[in-house]
Amino acid sequence: MQRAIMKGTGELPGVHYEEITYEGYGPSGVAMIVTVLTDNRNRTVAEIRKIFSKNGGNLGESGCVAWMFQKKGLIVVDKDKIDEDELLGIALDAGAEDVRPGDAIYEVITSVEDFEPVKQGVAAKGIELSSSEISLLPQTTVRLEGNQARQLLKLMDELEEHDDVQNVYANFDIPDEVMAEV
Question: Do 149 and 132 fall within a single domain?
Answer without folding.
Answer: no
